[in-house]
Amino acid sequence: MTPFPRPDYGTLARYHFDRTPVALDLSDNTNQWGTHPAALDVLRTADVDSLARYPDLYADDLRAAAAARLGVPEACIATGCGSDDVLDSTYRASGGRAGDFVAVATPTFSMALPLAQMNGMPARSVPWARALDDPNRLLEGGPALVYVCRPNNPTGELCPTAWVQALLEAAGEDGPLILVDEAYVDFGGDTFAAQAAQHPRLLVSRTLSKAFGLAGLRVGYSVATPETALEVEKSRGPYKVARVAAQAAAAALRDEEGWITRTVAECVENRTRTEALLAQRGLEPVPSRANFILFRAPGGSARTDALAIRDRGVAVRPFAGDMPAGSDALRVTVAPWPLMERFRAALDDYLTTLDGTP
Fold first, then answer.
1. Greatest extent of the chain over all pairs of C-alpha atoms, in Å
2. Domain covering 37-254, topology
3. pTM of the predicted model over 0.85
4. What residues does CATH 3.40.640.10 cover in the chain?
5. Mean pLDDT for each 10-residue chunk of the chain (358 residues)?
6. Range 7-30+259-355 classified under CATH 3.90.1150.10
7. What is the per-residue DSSP string for 249-299?
């Protein structure tokens, strides 16, 4: 008899972290300024057909809006139900042969490794610092796919442009597909979208869950050559983006009133201010190019420290051993300054219990 589930699913767990309601949740990197107003207008005026009828097969209006925003042909865009869906489809289209595996620079996005297992491929982790020292380490053993998050989650670091170029050159024309996850690129850093539209071994993934404030609608897309985009869409299947979600996302991508520009600028300013605040307290913030900051867990235990700050009304995300020096870390999402002041107050109150001074 054929076993169910697959034997390699035995060690696969459901995704989970503590989402118990709290007064101020700064744990998930969503947009604390809210949702793009143009998307809200679409949702408020949705008609019966938006819900009663199937959506476009491949979200053509969304593809057009994404292509126009990035200046690439529409045929280079594949869409999905969140960028996770795009990543999943890319993994699936990349693997399947005996010996195929995924190489991942870690620590990174928490789904990067499980997605490999879900799609029947082993994953090989390369420590982030070692990978940055020599991109060839990600190519050792001949992976089918290489995953790089840029800016990286949870560290916020941005691997240099020259490093990505070196990785692509080392991979060569017959090497693995290089998947660059640009979920946070709106908050800092150059994009590889234009190059992905022309390079047969490069795919860039994007999401509308972060800068655009549409995490609840689950919309993502990728940029690649038309040939690669087609394979991702074949792997993904039709009807994956709801009609009203695609319409709202397209309106947000057009950003006709400049809402993204304004909110991102404020977020970057507050990120700088918060990094300084954390540095003053000796918490060693990692310089970030995203909408969050990773910093040293003040009491040494990420879980204990996160629970203590949560008890003071603010949720941050714990990470065990993910600081560059290997110590435990906390990650805080950047928000409007009044909310960051609430975070500061909760943090300082906890620091006082640790050593008597904030």
1. 64
2. Aspartate Aminotransferase; domain 2 (3.40.640)
3. yes
4. 37-254
5. 81 80 95 97 94 94 97 98 96 93 96 95 95 97 97 96 97 94 95 98 98 97 98 95 97 96 97 98 97 97 97 96 90 98 98 82
6. yes
7. HHHHHH-TT-HHHHHHHHHHHHHHHHHHHHHHTT--PPP-SSSEEEEE-TT
